[in-house]
Amino acid sequence: MEFDLWYLVFVPVLFFAGWWCRGFDQKQRGESEKVPEITTKGLALLLDGESDKAIDAFIEVVRVDPELTELERVLGNLLRSRGEFERAVRLHRHLYNRADLSDEERALALKELAQDFLAAGFFDRAEAAYRKLSSVPSEHLYALRQLLSIYVIEHEWAAATETARLLETQAGETHSLEIAHFYCERIDQALRAKRSEDARLLVEQLMKYADATPRAQMTIAKVAEAAGATTEAVRWWRRVIEKNPDYAPLVIGKLADAMNEQGDRAGALKLLLDTTERLSTADVMEATLSRIAAWQGIGAAETLAQSLLEKHPTLSAYNALLQIRLKGNPDDPMTKLVAGLMEKNGRKWSRFQCRKCGFLASSFSWHCLGCGAWESFSPKRVADR
């Protein structure tokens, strides 16, 4: 009798469980059947420019069918492109931590997560993610390239040098130009911190890249000058002018001063005049006229400035003449007024411009903040070109 009672209770329970499971299965099937419809709706909203509603639709698709890992990745990309980095990180991190992913899918999720961190400016997290990604053979070189860009942004020049060398050996790429600049950056840091011995040791490494960029030759000269080796500095500055004459505006003043210190003022004057005649840029004229004014007097400098203006009727030459006249007669109201107007209106044209992206900088730079290119600035100002 007790067995019969237990049987009567158990059968209804089984019936209810079967009915509930059937209803749940139908519900799940019904929701799954909605996936194509919701996806189509999301795409239509995206094409119509209603990205907020499109994102909501895609989130609903992912909720209904968690197996759609590709859609989850795309959704994260869409959030990242909209600047919603926190939501993108949350989505890609959830995807990366899923236990049912294949190694390939997990690597793709990690790649997207690293891009989220990089776009959001979390460079330390991006670096950690790309380091982990570099252990995946198919993504190794891509991860190294991304790490290199992060090290440049964060001015981690030693790590950037090592990564660039890895890319040279493992990808067959050439990074001599970048490595030379990385060494120059490290030497500049050492000189600013008055670590002369570190600068000297780094110059020994930089010597291998001396012909990669004129900056390497200028940096070697700078270290020699700081060590009191003026003759060595002069030799390297001359090499810059001989091999890369367009970069003369960056070194001509220092070279002339060094030659003057060595007792060769006549040679320094000849160098200044020859370079001014050949280039006639604002920086070269300023270097020449300021030294002639100091060595031969304001009158000689004004005569030369007048001659330059007649030969090269440019705003730069006219401004140089005004500045010399202002030095000779600082109280002249008209000269002061015109010189002030020239300075005010000439700022736009006295800047340096990146040849790749057009970014304008008030001072010459070896690295463009706009596009990240090395050695893309012309040593001539916009007005001079």
UniProtKB/TrEMBL annotation:
This is Lipopolysaccharide assembly protein B. Fe cation binds at residues 354, 357, 368, 371. Residues 23-385 are cytoplasmic. Keywords: Cell inner membrane, Cell membrane, Iron, Membrane, Metal-binding, Repeat, TPR repeat, Transmembrane, Transmembrane helix. Gene3D superfamilies: Tetratricopeptide repeat domain (1.25.40.10). Its main location: membrane. It comes from Sutterella wadsworthensis HGA0223. The gene is lapB. One of its GO terms (cellular component) is cytoplasmic side of plasma membrane. The keyword Transmembrane applies. One of its GO terms (biological process) is regulation of lipid biosynthetic process. Belongs to the LapB family. It is found in: Cell inner membrane. Residues 352-379 form the LapB rubredoxin metal binding domain. HAMAP family: LPS_assembly_LapB. InterPro entries: CellSynth/LPSAsmb/PSIAsmb, LapB, Rubredoxin_2, TPR-like_helical_dom_sf, TPR_rpt. SUPFAM superfamilies: TPR-like. The keyword Flavoprotein does not apply. It is a single-pass membrane protein. GO terms for molecular function: iron ion binding.
